[in-house]
Batch of 2 targets.
Target 1
Amino acid sequence: MDQSVEASAPDAEKQSQTTATLCDAWDYKGRPAVRASSGGWSSAAMIVCVELNERLTTLGIAVNLVTYLTGTMHLGAAASANTVTNFLGTSFMLCLLGGFLADTFLGRYLTIAIFTALQAAGMAVLTLSTAAPGLRPPACADPTGSSSSCAAPNGTQLGVLYLGLYLTALGTGGLKSSVSGFGSDQFNESDGGERRVMARFFSWFFFLISIGSLLAVTVLVYVQDKIGRRWGYGVCVVAILAGLLLFLAGTTRYRFKKLVGSPVTQIAAVIAAAWRNRSLPLPSDPAMLYEDLDVDAAKQRLPHSKQCRFLDHAAIVEETAAPATNKKSNRRAACTVTEVEEVKQVVRMLPTWATTIMFWTVYAQMTTFSVSQAAAMDRRLSSTFVIPAGSLTVFFVAAILLTVPLYDRLLAPLARRLTAHPHGLSPLHRIFLGLLLAAFAMLAAALTERTRRQSSTPPSVFLLLPQFVLVGAGEAFTYIGQLDFFLRECPRGMKTISTGLFLTTLSLGFFLSSLLVTLVHKLTSSRRPWLADNLDHGRLDYFYWLLAGISALNLAAFVAAARGHVYKDKRLADAGIKLHPDDDVVLHA
């Protein structure tokens, strides 16, 4: 009898593990998710495939679009460059819309599914725009493509082109805002083992994005140039739909989280309350500010800080409030100290947010004027094979793929010994390196362009390698440093809006590039334009010198802001607050 009971014990334990459920995750039917049969790497992989196809599509459009706009659509160099950067900027800016919809109405799963379908529709329109002869202006009468012999596109042709581009941008922004978050939802953060696996998920997430980029600048660009642009865009449509079907196939295995509402509402409420109470005097003792003692377990009570004192007005308890014995009835009259401090944490991230925008302005040149440079240089590898101008960005992507493991295996261990930081370089140190490399990249680009102009024959396209490699290595440091910084420093429950803040630096960087191009073209066109349709008639090197100077000034501003930043975990530790296990999640690059 005892032997029978003893023999059945392992089976009972195994059955218990198989049927164990999670308290904060649900399956597609709204039931508590079973730990053993949901989530994990298999579910996360199906989600990551959507992001891989998104990067394949977005970069596949961006790196080669400028040649299509100038050569086929007969737009000027400045207008073509701005079209590319505006497309990319809109894609990332729409991440805020996607994040808001995901947090407030749709949830991450539906947001990904709906916006992936929109991206596929946009690519289908773009494919039609490049395939139908009536949607392109006729070829130039003069083979050299002089402006007098080229017919400008009409409104319908530009309208269909822009419809395809911006419908694709809408889909890209919506799904990008939720893919990384939904992927991380597949791991239980309260479990030590799954929490460590989730940290690895972010590294593989970034790595697979880069694989998508590599496919875009090699296979996809080659198909566009050698077989036909409509075939290249058609491949994207098929890839997006295949990724969507794979994503939907994993529905029964996903772990879902309940909607928590948009943090934008809380930020707006704190700012509105602070403005409404701006005439009320702040109490001499911060303990007199309103705080709810029964803080939700999903939140973390934060101590009062002395920065941004204006926001403290939102937590003032007015004299007409309910008695202290009934504080809960006063909940609508003022915000809590914790809510105010969460908004302060977002404010503390803004200097870093503002000073990282310039990196993405430099990055934008790799998909616009650097591609134009490549088109004007000798791209022959042999008598029969010519490198497509857009494929030079393969060295940019290769630099990313090489920098990540080199940092992990060589630089990080060295940095751990020198700085005592547990993961090598801190997020701000990584961002500093990325901004520094971006400034050097613009110096290299200016020198290369001067060499190209002074050469009697078109020089080798490989002279462009330094600027591509420097920006690529810079992205590896900046992108992961920003992602690490914005996720670690944001308040608990505000990861979506913090990710949105990070992605808006990309958007604003591209828009800043468009603004600079427009201003420079307008200010120099009356004399010798810097950004001429024919690079030999302009001074692109002057534009690169300008970007190098702005990058140097921005780097100095970043250093000043970084010196004054105190990391969230240090502030909480100094206040004697024990960190939640979530705060131990670190993005290893």
Target 2
Amino acid sequence: MIPQYLVDFDLRELPTVETDCIVIGSGIAGLFTAIKASEDRRVIMITKKSLMESNTRYAQGGIAAVIAEDDSPLYHRQDTLMAGAGLCSSASVDALVNEGPEGVRELIRLGTLFDKEDGVLALTQEGAHSHRRILHANGDATGYEIVRALVQQVLEHHNIEVWDDHFVIDLITDDGECVGALVQKPNGERLFLKGDATVLCSGGAGQLYRYTTNPEIATGDGVAIAYRAGAHIRDMEFIQFHPTALSYPGAPRFLISEAVRGEGAVLRNIKGERFMEKYHDLLELAPRDVVARAIVSEMEETKSTFVYLDITHESADMVKHRFPTIYKTCIGYGLDITSDWIPVAPAAHYMMGGIKTDLNGESSIPRLFACGEVSSTGVHGANRLASNSLSEAIVFGRRIIERVRCLPKLNKTHISAGCDLGRQEHPTQAMVERRLKLQKIMVRYVGLRRNEEMLHKGLEELNRQLPIFGGALTKREDYEFANMLICSLLVTESALAREESRGAHYREDFPQRDDEYWRKHLLQIRELGIVEETSDDV
């Protein structure tokens, strides 16, 4: 079994720092939650790199909210439930669609400059949305603009203390509740950070896969540390692969936003043939899992490693104005998207599963909250609707802090948690090599298409890495790999258990959706394994 703690320690021997609220992570979820908490609480915000580095920064498409007069929360609700393939929580979706517009207004009050046309907020449409409800900034740099505005607020707030380049190794629990975290400083020293509430906002796990749109920091840390602490982890088999990441020699898997298709781009195979009509009535605007699998099918049929995204029929001025970041990035690699077809292929993009929370963002462990991609609020179900993730972070960030304000102070003076397994440092394969091997295992056996034989093989390969938990881990890359290994095991085990195809989870040996038996969730609990969960919503 995975141990509760990654390292040996004794709290009595470590320095203790106390605060009201601990926020771990600096994407939109962490920044917004910290700002809300700081209105009446002292906040320590921890980021393992820097405030500006997160998945949010790279979000291009925008943030979904009902703004237009011809739109309504009911339409947004229907679109979200349809994309979620029967596994959304209706109460969570109701919260998202009804509270999202006020969340956007709050972002604007905090300094976010969304694009406008003729003095009103500009809205675009994305895949599986029935209306234009996607707000964007600087054309295709929405995430960066939101992070810019929120970081400025955080840095100016006297109640927020930011710890850059610090790593949360584990959560500390006492009598079943979370009392803080074991943190490693940049110089390698460790301390106990004690808090009345701990909010995990540590983002996703795209780095489990060799090809991903996520930055290098997206290593699934939050899910792994919550799992070790005993929290319930839900729906980890549902990994969303973005259909259109740049696939070009020498270039990273740069995201080519869903909004490009929303503005009229079409997909063509290497023969130049448009193909989405063979796969879905919504063509290029079908749900992401459908589009991603269609692209893989065309790649296999034409023996190619990519397909083309073609927006050359639109005016060059419109393309440059609407997608300046994509245009500049591609031109840097010799691709002019106003006249050239863009070579694209699917890449790991978003984790629908995560730490199970209630409507207040609280996990199964009292005083431990989760917000953003690390959480499983029930909004996304089996497949996230485009641009709902930024809205979710705002809506649930506010709900979390309302709940935190109701918590009594943590009155424990003596917390004697510790771990002494006598771990010894021993020569190991370089972590960079282990990481690359893990990523290849996940791409080969636990990718867009799965079957029992592949998943068993993947599990077998991953289990060979388990001995690392018996050795002394000391550096950030050690902890990251341990977290990636745990998340990979969770994804693979749940993918093996779910014997159907639904949303982003596709089993070649069980290609049909089975609502009669499988309209349920899979929980993973460290001391119990996999537990099936049904609710009134599913």
